[in-house]
Every structure is written in C-alpha cells, then in structure tokens.
Inverse folding.
C-alpha cells in the first residue's frame, strides 16, 4: 500500500475551488474531499496536486491513497484539516526559515502553528505567504551532510553540496516534515516564491557570479535539481485550476505516465538561460484574495544580468506585472522576496556599487568583489528596475486602492517604511518586512542595521550616489516601525479599506502594530 511521505499542503484557494499537494512513496490514486488525482513520478518520488471544485465555505477533509485513509494519522491531537473559502481578512507572511534543529533561535513559524491550534478557527489567517528561502540548499544540516556522505560514498560528487532532485527532496522533507508545520500547511492556503538560498547563496547576483558558478563541474546538475524541485514542491501549487489547465509543462507531466525527471531537468536548463534579454519562464504570478490582490514578483530567476543593462525582471515579465496592477481592489500586495525600500544608507550604497562594478579594470573588479561579499543585489542594485517599480507603485497608488504594500523578507530584520512621492498618492504606500522566520543572525549585526537606517548614513551615501551619477530618488521613505530583530511571523489584517501590520516573535509577543490606510470600519 502506498504511504504518504509529505503533505497534505493546502495551496490555491478561491471562492469555490482549491488545490491540495501531496507526496507519496509509490504510484497511487489520491482522493481528497471526493476528488481524485493520479500521482506522477519524478525520479523516486511520486506527487499529486488534487483539484477540488464546487466547494462550500468550509470543508473538512482527509487524504486517501487508493481509498485508504492516511491523513489525519490515527490518534492525532491536531485539529481536523479544513478548507475555508470566501472572505480573506487576515494574511500571515514571512521569509527565511532554516530547517528545524539549526542553531538559529526558536522557530517562529512552528511556535505560530502551536498557538494557532489553540485559537478559534474564526481567528485563523485565511492565507500564508512564504517569501523565499523555504530551504537552505547551501547550508544543509549536519544530518543531511552525513546523509549525503553515505549516499555518495565512492563517487566524485562534491562534499556537502546539495545537487540532484532527490537531494533537494530531502531538504523539503526536513523543513516541512515537522508535525506542527505539516498541520499548519494543511489548513492555511500557502503561496510561495524562491530566493537565493532555495538554489544557492547569492544566486544570480551578477553576470560575473554566473560565470564563476558555471566553471564548477557540478553546477549544471545543481541548477537542474534546484529548479525542477522548485517547480514540483513550490511553484505548481501557486497556480489555480484554470492556470494548471493551460500549463503545457503540467500537461506533459500528467500525460507521460513514467518518470518525468528528464523532462523537468530539460525545462530547468531552459528556464535558467538568458537569451536576448528574455527568460523562457515567468515565475511571477497573481492571486486574488477577495478585495486584496497579491502580485508575487520573481526577483531571482527572471534577472537579466548583462552589465550594459542589468534588470531585476526582464521587460516581458515586468509588462505582465504592470498590467496586473489594474483592478478594483482595496489592497494591492506586491510580494517580493527582496525589499524595495531598504535602510537608506544601504540602499544608496547598493546603487553606488552598481555604478562602480560597470567600470573597467581594477575598479570594476573591486566593486564586483564587494558586491558578492556584502550581498549587494537587492532592488537598489538594479537601479533601472528599482525606478520602474517605483513608478509602477506610484501609478497603482492613484488607481483606487487604499493601500499598496510591498511584502518582503531576506534582510534578517523586520520593519515598516512608508513612501512619500512628490505628489501625494491617494493610497498609503508601505514596505512591510518580516525576516527571518527561523534564521536569527548574530547579535553583532544589529548595530550595522541600525546605522544603515540612521540619518547620517542616508545623507552621506545619497551625496556620494549623486556624485557618481546615480539618479535622484523618485520618492522619499521613512521608517515608521523597527528595526525589529529576532525570529518572527507577521500578520496583515484587513478591515474595509484599512490594513494593520502586526509582528509576533517566536514567544508570541506582539513587537509591532502599524495601521495603514483609512480608519477601520
């Protein structure tokens, strides 16, 4: 009999439909709430994304493999898995979650799940957004390192490097297999996007970085394993039933009937290529949560890195994002693993570094080294894209919504910053950051982040930026909360045309509360 390996993960949910993702150890029929889907095979793993339609406002469910109930497990103390459709009043979000057992503080998402189990269902969030670094492929646990050594004994595979699909699968098992997390992901519809650690630290920082990685004999296998596993474990569940029906790769996977790993690896190689200023694959996507719209923006895989025109997102994908800002919504959410608005000193320094890295000779090489060592590859380091995003946000903030919020992570401290454009916008424009969920940085870094937010640092680096030719900023921004340190989960509550950002530590303490938009109804 087939066994459930991982899941169920509740992924897409709208007013009447949903998708639920599972991994099994053998080919089987997966039935959830009366809807059945056959698994597909990738290497030694088997997966299914079950589409559920014509749902009511609340549907309790179990998971059956070939008609045998395998979830919830017998004697489980966890609340019954449930799918809730309809109004979205609360969204949870965060980023950067190292695997359980890593010495990086208490896991705020695990603690959040434990609190949620004791909370009335009516007060649960209706959605969860994970903004990058779901797995740390470049920082495996000691247990995974030993597993790799045992698996590779007598081979020439690189020591300590996660390379192949099956090895990435282990990372997902490790980070999502925790019982509390597994329950949480079974009841909260979850949207995801990758960041660098899902592939490797500093992924796609620059053209030079890509050239350096391409010289490593294992990198081709690494990128194929990373992207093919991302498509299976994360991206597939981001798509709704209509998008799945029109997805040519998913159609091929479902039709093949045998191991589809070669097909996915071929797709992964093409997705990674930069050809004529374009990428073959869009990882960005849109989700509508009632009166709120999420535009999830890929800030890693879609980069164009030719030094004569560096772009965070290629033109075709950016055009699509801009078109999807139109709509009658109260709250426009832009999901970006990397913050748009950063500490002023750090933001200007990144733009300065981009100018320096374009210079020939030793100056360019020095600036590139600084770029890689200090991770200078956020939105301000792609100045053309930073300005285009700023113009898009300003336009969207005058189109009828009450708030335009950029949800981000990555920078290992949490904060709220509000943007002020030369002409006041109708909507409040805010950068909301929650980082990390479970990867607390050394305390020694806290003074550096505080200094980067200081007026003196902002003034100094803005003067230098002007001197070296960085364009003037299209807006000003001011930090209204933070910086907050420590592992945390954020909630964004909607009440009519108002929104409130709240930040909770792993202990459950509320460390920030900021009202955005009009007064609550």
């Amino acid at each position: 009999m087939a066994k459930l390996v991982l899941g169920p993960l509740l992924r897409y949910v709208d007013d009447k439909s949903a998708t639920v993702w599972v991994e099994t150890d053998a080919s089987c029929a997966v039935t959830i709430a009366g809807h059945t889907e056959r698994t597909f095979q990738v290497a030694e793993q088997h997966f299914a994304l079950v589409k559920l339609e014509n749902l009511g406002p609340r549907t309790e469910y179990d998971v059956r493999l070939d008609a045998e109930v395998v979830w919830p497990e017998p004697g489980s103390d966890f609340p019954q898995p449930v799918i809730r459709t309809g109004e979205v009043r609360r969204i949870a979000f965060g980023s950067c979650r190292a695997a359980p057992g890593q010495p990086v503080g208490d896991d705020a998402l695990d603690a959040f799940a434990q609190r949620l189990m004791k909370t009335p269902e009516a007060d649960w969030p209706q959605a969860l957004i994970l903004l990058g670094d779901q797995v740390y492929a470049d920082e495996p646990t000691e247990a995974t390192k030993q597993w790799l050594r045992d698996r590779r004994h007598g081979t020439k595979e690189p020591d300590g490097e996660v390379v192949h699909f099956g090895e990435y699968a282990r990372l997902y098992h490790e980070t999502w297999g925790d019982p509390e997390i597994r329950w949480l992901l079974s009841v909260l519809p979850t949207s995801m996007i990758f960041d660098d650690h899902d592939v490797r630290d500093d992924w796609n920082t620059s053209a030079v970085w890509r050239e350096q990685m391409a010289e490593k004999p294992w990198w081709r296998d690494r990128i194929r394993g990373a992207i093919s596993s991302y498509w299976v474990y994360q991206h597939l569940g981001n798509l709704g039933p209509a998008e799945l029906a029109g997805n040519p790769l998913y159609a091929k996977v479902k039709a093949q009937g045998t191991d589809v790993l070669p097909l996915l690896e071929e797709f992964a190689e093409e997705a990674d290529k930069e050809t004529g200023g374009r990428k073959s694959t869009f990882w960005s996507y849109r989700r509508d949560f009632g009166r709120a719209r999420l535009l999830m923006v890929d800030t890693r895989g879609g980069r164009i890195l030719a030094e004569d025109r560096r772009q965070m997102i290629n033109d075709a994908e950016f055009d699509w994002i801009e078109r999807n800002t139109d709509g009658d919504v109260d709250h426009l959410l832009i999901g970006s693993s990397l913050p748009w608005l950063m500490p002023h000193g750090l933001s200007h320094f990144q733009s300065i570094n981009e100018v320096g890295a374009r210079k020939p000779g030793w100056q360019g090489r020095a600036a590139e080294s600084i770029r890689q060592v200090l991770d200078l590859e956020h939105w301000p380091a792609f100045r053309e894209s930073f300005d285009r995003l700023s113009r898009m946000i300003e336009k969207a903030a005058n189109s009828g919504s009450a708030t335009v919020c950029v949800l981000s992570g990555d920078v290992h401290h949490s904060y709220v910053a509000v943007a002020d454009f030369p002409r006041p916008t109708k909507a409040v424009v805010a950068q909301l950051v929650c980082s990390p969920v479970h990867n607390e940085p050394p305390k020694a870094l806290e003074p550096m982040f505080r200094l980067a937010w200081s007026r003196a640092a902002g003034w100094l680096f803005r003067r230098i930026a002007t001197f070296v030719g960085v364009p003037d900023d299209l807006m000003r921004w001011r930090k209204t909360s933070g910086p907050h340190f420590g592992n945390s989960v954020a909630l964004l509550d909607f009440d009519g045309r108002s929104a409130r950002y709240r930040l909770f530590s792993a202990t459950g303490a509320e460390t920030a509360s900021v009202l955005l938009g009009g007064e609550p109804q």
